[in-house]
Give the backbone structure.
Amino acid sequence: MTLVSVVQMNSQDDIESNFQVIESLIQQSKAQNASLIVFPENFVCFAAGKQRETAEQFESIQQRLEKLAHQYQIWIVAGTLPCPFRPDGSIIQDGRVRTVSLCISPERTEARYDKIHLFDVQVGDAVGGYQESRFFEPGTDVVVTSTPFGNIGLMVCYDLRFPELALTLRQQGAHLLTAPAAFTYTTGQMHWQLLLQARAMDSQCYVLGAAQQGWHGEKRQTWGHAGATDSRGQVLSMIGYEGNGLITVPFDLATQELVRTSMPLMMHRKLIHY
């Protein structure tokens, strides 16, 4: 059995202040004997106008996170960071950036996932409409990475609405799906818990939904409720309070395998084969 932590943050636009919270949460996670900690989307800097500026610091921020992973001997799923270059190293020339989620071991960065599904949606909140594709270039590659406690399939926020991604990650060997998010208050209230449960039920993976919560500037409000669902789609734990915090839940490969063999969903699929 392995213990895994899922984080809720109220990140703002001050990178140093956010890093103080990040290290404090890692310390809490280690005190609970967790092997993995999952941070939310935009956890190092939450500021719509600062994406390109933050992206220019991508490599230095990555190095700081690698040092923390090594110092505390913990695996980190580094929420999301804006990145000015693609996985092959080519620079994005049109001024946009990639939304990147890193999986970092105590030794090095093990995997990089670039968010595939971009949030171009009209929402009935103070912001009104979101058009991520104006500022972000979508990724194309599905990413599963191995760890000592199971294989992690990487997702980000809006990706949760697309069951085919979760199923593809399962087919490629994932045991845990990580979903760093910054759901709007409006959409989160309607669908956040439902989506964590649905993707876990579809894929028979654990889903670890790290979340931003609260106000970020005058208009942007996120839902929070960082949570974890098991391989049957049941909620193991979910944060019900405001502000920074974490939950730590047990994950066991043998128990998951029992769930999958007793109801072999991947074997029974007829219409779409993964």
About this structure: Residues 149 and 172 are 16 Å apart (CA to CA).
